[in-house]
Amino acid sequence: MVALSVANQATTENLNPYEIAQRQIEEAASHLQLPAHVVEFLKKPKRVLSVNFPVKMDDGTVRVFEGFRSQHNDALGPNKGGIRFHPDVTMDEVKALSMWMSFKCGVVGLPYGGGKGGVICDPRKLSKGELERVSRGFMEAIAEIVGPEKDIPAPDVYTTPEIMGWMMDTYSRLRGAFTPGVITGKPLIVGGSKGRNEATARGCVFTIEEAMRQLGKPMQGATVAIQGYGNAGRIAAKLLSEQGCTIVAVSDSGGAIYLPEGLPVDEIGRLKDEKGSVRYFEAANAITNEELLELEVDILIPAALENVITAANASRIKAKIVAEAANGPTTPEADKVLFEKGIVVIPDILANAGGVTVSYFEWVQNLANFYWSEEEVNSKLKVKMTESYGVVSELASKHNVPLRTAAYMVSIQRIAEAMKARGWV
């Protein structure tokens, strides 16, 4: 049989995130003795809301925006998950992300289910006033199904603490009372938590430290490539460089750069702020995002969007550790290839769970109206992340499965137990 070309391999792989999430559930559940109806229940969100809402634009015209909020499973507690503003948002993507959030919360032992929201828009093409009206309009549209005891949104792709502040204010006005617990990732002055901005990256770094320790490799001098230089990727670069790692490549939507002897992280951050892309750092070699993924490094951090490591390129991945700061960057077919190659993949539902963990801390602080120091937040985060990595790693070794499968096994078992305790199944 003639081997498929790389292009053909890419076209034969199903990259629908919702179907990928369902396949990941099936794979993990196959190692657990669960009734079939429990698995089927977990493979679909409990509720998905589709909304359309009008927004007056700066030129006086009215534009109708479409958005979604998916709530996967609230057996363990209220739903929790971000809201993204992106032109490519789809209902299937939001459903998948809500499912991943359920398992992300479950794997680190948070009393939450998974939620996710999105609005189809390009915030880079909106004025600040238009962006605020879109943010408030979406919160008004979903207000009936969210709340501190129901569903607690947070920032995601192209949403910010400022946007969360607008949404919290809108909900509070509708309720007639200041309600900071409806949203996490807010500005500090209105109930945000110290340490939240760095939490996703810091949690990812904690899991990388554990993986490197198990491999018997020092952090000092370890080489790192980061695809996606947004909030998580940029902060991960800073934290890793502070530990002596060498950041050899970074990228964003404008391009990728590579410098074998190491990139000056602070200088690149300033350049991105000034010019909008890392590609303007002329002292480095310009490469493609695809080439960045295939560099021979100790640590590869996909920190952009879904489906960047696929059957088409998995065989060319050379990193020893792939730490998924993004949601869903690796497809199931690619997972199999990486596992066979002996590459340690720290799955998204564990690697980037630092964000939702500190969001949980923020919610707890809001409900108690008592706030912690940044040192306390980071200390509690480290305990959660390192303990969770240990549980997942031990289970993976016991069953000889990838860390992703083990992470799903831990989480699915916890959710299934909660559903049984509540008499759902």
Could you explain how this protein is built, in words?
This protein has 425 residues and is of the alpha/beta class. Helices cover 45% and strands 16% of the residues. Helix 5 (128-142) packs across helix 6. It starts with 5 loop residues before the first helix and ends with a helix.
Name the beta content range.
15-25%
As laid out across the biggest beta sheet, the strand order is 9-8-7-6-10-11-12
Structural class: alpha/beta
Distance between the termini: 47 Å
DSSP, total strands:
12
Mean pLDDT: 94
Total helical elements: 15
Characterize the overall form. Answer: globular
Give a brief outline of the structure.
Helices cover 45% and strands 16% of the residues. With 425 residues, the protein is an alpha/beta fold.
